[in-house]
């Protein structure tokens, strides 16, 4: 016993609260035409989640609510509840009893309850679907619907079978997997196209960023090399400059000292100079005096001429005295002349007079002097005077020579000091020049540093460079690095950012493609599995159904052959609106419809078209039971499926029903007495005086 009870209130013709208990096995609902039997079927269908009013034999939702009669007023709400025994755990819920209630009012409000908890219609449909129950399946065969399978197209038949087998779920899964596969394929193509599109751009960006990274290395090397190069330069300049200044100031103080010494020497020289003795003048006057005396002496000698010692030799031809007078006359005439020509002429005449004098023969004999005492005394006087003059002259000359020596020495000392000072000045100038050269170098380095935004002071405390540091190579390297950096250009941050963004986009796309490829292969695998399941289960089930059908055919027609066969022409899944991705059209995807093969015993003709109404009904019932025999549902509602059967065939139906005892519970609406006889419980439905349906329980056993 699974379906326990049905409660109706305000539903269609069941105005008052009506309860139908189903004890199990076969429950037959009987009653006159129009009493409301089929409304019971409708109620069950409604409770299983039917959405369409027309499938409940109404034009609109309102039609489900008791419309009222002359004797009984209409109702505002229709409500029905169905009770299931869930002790077997058929429904995947912890409830031992599952009660589904559906309610509708005239304002269009509707509500569903699962054990009093309100649910959405969709959730209820899912709830039943999970248990392979539903408003549209083989659970409820409405009046006139029993031959639906016969009337259906081969494709629809296949669907009905799949539904009965619970393959619908797999098919839906497969279709959604196929759709997903198709979307995945589209997304994969898109992602691949995008990836291909950004790849060259990204390569270019990465190359540029690579150059920027290289730039960083070059810039670092440049900085390090500059540090060493300028460090060594600056330090050398500072050390050079520090050497020069002390040297200059030492020289300066030397100069000061020497100048002081020079002043002292000059002062002493001036003193000496001013202390020049009169000796020179005295000497002049002595010489003047001698000249005068000499003249006087000469005048003293008329003949023979007494020649003083320097003129002792005489010439015979010409009187030597005359010659001397001549020389004197020449010399005196030239005394005041400054003209060199005149002087030269005078000198020539003096020379020629001297030559004349030389030609005078020397008289070795004593001069013939006339003895004269006065003369003699005068001569002696003159000699004495001359001697006095000689003594005075000698004394003065000695004195003068002493002075001259002191004077010369002092002058020499002054000159030497001046030379020393000059040497110091020269040396200072040389040092200053050297310093200027270094200063120029300093300026040059400062300028270079300014260009690179650095300052001289920054390098003042640079550490020592290693011994093998080569300044020339370093400078060339700096030059080369600067050129390379200039060639690379400045870092464009927007390119770096774009490279980063594009790289991320690239990685995302690669990941996406990986995921999509994985999803594609997963989906293909899933589709393959589902295909196999659907195909395999369907084929196995079909064989089983045919086995049952052969049995039913024997039972119902006393022989012959009834079988469901896969149609030979194929219906591809595309025909059902599912477009397969390329290369996915496998045998499993080709859906073959179902043909019904029927050969009745003792009859030549075959095929559905030639069957009588009863035969057709029998066949429909046989196939229905064949289908449900594969996976018998817990309950089935059959509304007048036996309408066209004669009593014998109705009994045969009863026998079939018995075969499902313990597996499937039947609710059968029937007018057929034989069917009624095979029922365990009978409910009579009558139309009351007030125009509403009433239930009368006619339990048989
Ligand atoms: P049959 O044996 O001829 O198939 P039945 O017993 O199955 O008859 P139903 O079709 O279940 O009868 O019931 C039809 C009756 O229910 C009709 O008389 C109809 O007027 C009544 N009915 C249907 N809907 C409503 C409604 N909303 N309010 C009142 N009565 C309704």
Provide a concise account of the structure shown.
Helix content is 57%, strand content 13%. The protein is an alpha/beta fold.
Describe the protein in words.
- This protein is an alpha/beta fold and 701 residues long.
- Among the domains are: 1-139 and 636-701, Rossmann fold; 276-428, no CATH class.
- It is built from 14 helices and 14 strands.
- It has helices at residues 37-47, 121-130, 148-151, 154-165, 168-274, 279-300, 320-334, 340-358, 373-451, 471-488, 493-557, 613-630, 647-659, 673-677, and strands at residues 3-9, 18-21, 26-30, 77-85, 97-105, 110-114, 117-119, 140-141, 561-572, 590-599, 635-639, 665-669, 681-687, 693-697.
- The strands form three sheets. A six-stranded antiparallel β-sheet has the order 2-1-4-5-6-7. A six-stranded mixed β-sheet has the order 8-11-12-3-13-14, covered by helices on one side. Strands 9-10 form a two-stranded antiparallel sheet.
- α6 runs antiparallel to α9 (373-451).
- The longest helix has 107 residues, at 168-274.
- The chain starts with a strand and ends with a strand.
- The model is unreliable at 311-316 and 571-588 (pLDDT under 50).
- Adenosine-5'-triphosphate is lined by residues 12-13, 31, 33-39, 63, 65-67, 143.
């Amino acid at each position: 016993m699974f379906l326990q009870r049905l409660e109706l209130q305000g539903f269609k013709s069941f105005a008052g609260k009506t309860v139908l208990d189903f004890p199990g096995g076969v429950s037959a609902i009987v009653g006159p035409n129009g009493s409301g039997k089929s409304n019971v079927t409708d109620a069950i269908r409604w409770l299983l989640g039917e959405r369409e009013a027309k499938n409940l034999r109404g034009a609109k939702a309102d039609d489900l609510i008791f419309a009222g009669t002359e004797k009984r007023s209409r109702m505002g709400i229709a409500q029905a509840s169905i009770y299931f025994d869930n002790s077997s755990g058929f429904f995947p819920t912890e409830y031992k009893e599952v009660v589904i209630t559906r309610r509708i009012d005239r304002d269009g409000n509707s509500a569903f309850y699962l054990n009093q908890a309100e649910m959405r219609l969709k959730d209820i449909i899912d709830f039943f679907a999970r248990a392979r129950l539903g408003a549209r399946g083989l659970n409820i065969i409405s009046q006139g619907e029993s031959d639906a399978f016969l009337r259906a197209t081969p494709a629809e038949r296949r669907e009905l079978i799949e539904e009965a087998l619970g393959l619908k779920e797999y098919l839906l899964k497969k279709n959604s997997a196929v759709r997903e596969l198709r979307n995945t394929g589209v997304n994969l193509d898109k992602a691949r196209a995008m990836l291909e599109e950004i790849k060259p751009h990204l390569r270019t960006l990465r190359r540029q960023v690579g150059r920027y990274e290289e730039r960083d290395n070059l810039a670092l090397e440049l900085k390090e090399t500059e540090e060493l190069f300028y460090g060594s330069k600056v330090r050398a300049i500072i050390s050079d400059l520090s050497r020069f200044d002390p040297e200059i100031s030492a020289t300066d103080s030397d100069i000061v000292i020497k100048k002081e010494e020079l002043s002292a020497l000059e002062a002493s020289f001036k003193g000496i100079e001013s202390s020049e003795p009169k000796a020179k003048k005295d000497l002049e006057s002595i010489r003047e005096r001698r000249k005068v005396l000499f003249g006087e002496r000469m005048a003293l000698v008329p003949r023979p001429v007494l020649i003083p010692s320097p003129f002792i030799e005489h010439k015979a031809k010409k009187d030597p005295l005359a010659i001397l007078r001549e020389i004197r006359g020449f010399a005196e005439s030239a005394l005041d002349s400054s003209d060199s020509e005149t002087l030269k002429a005078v000198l020539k005449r003096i020379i020629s007079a001297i030559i004349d004098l030389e030609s005078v023969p020397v008289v070795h004999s004593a001069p013939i002097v006339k003895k004269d005492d006065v003369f003699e005394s005068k001569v002696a006087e003159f000699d004495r005077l001359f001697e006095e003059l000689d003594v005075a002259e000698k004394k003065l000359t000695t004195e003068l020579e002493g002075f001259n020596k002191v004077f010369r020495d002092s002058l020499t000392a002054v000159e030497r000091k001046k030379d020393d000072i000059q040497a110091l000045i020269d040396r200072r100038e040389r040092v200053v020049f050297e310093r200027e050269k270094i200063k120029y170098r300093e300026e040059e380095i400062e300028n270079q540093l300014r260009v690179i935004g650095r300052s001289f002071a920054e390098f003042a405390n640079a550490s020592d460079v290693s011994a093998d540091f080569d300044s020339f190579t370093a400078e060339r390297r700096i030059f080369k690095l600067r050129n390379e950096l200039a060639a690379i250009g400045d870092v464009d941050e927007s390119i770096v950012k774009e490279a980063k963004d594009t790289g991320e986009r690239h990685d995302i796309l690669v990941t996406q493609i990986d995921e999509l490829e994985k999803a594609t292969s997963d989906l293909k695998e899933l589709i393959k599995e589902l295909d196999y399941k659907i195909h395999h289960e369907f084929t196995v089930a079909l064989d089983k159904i045919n086995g049952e059908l052969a049995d039913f055919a024997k039972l119902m027609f006393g022989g012959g052959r009834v079988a469901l066969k896969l149609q030979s022409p194929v219906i591809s899944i595309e025909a059902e609106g599912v477009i397969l991705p390329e290369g996915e059209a496998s045998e499993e995807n080709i859906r073959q419809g179902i043909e019904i093969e029927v050969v009745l015993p003792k009859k030549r003709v075959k095929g559905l078209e030639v069957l009588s109404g009863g035969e057709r009904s029998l066949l429909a019932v046989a196939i229905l039971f064949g289908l449900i025999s594969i996976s018998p549902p817990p309950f089935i509602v059959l509304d007048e499926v036996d309408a066209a059967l004669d009593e014998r065939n109705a009994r045969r139906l009863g026998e079939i029903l018995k075969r499902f005892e313990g597996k499937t519970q039947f609710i059968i609406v029937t007018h057929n007495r034989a069917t009624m006889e095979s029922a365990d419980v009978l409910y009579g439905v009558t139309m009351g005086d007030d125009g509403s349906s009433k239930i009368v329980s006619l339990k048989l056993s």
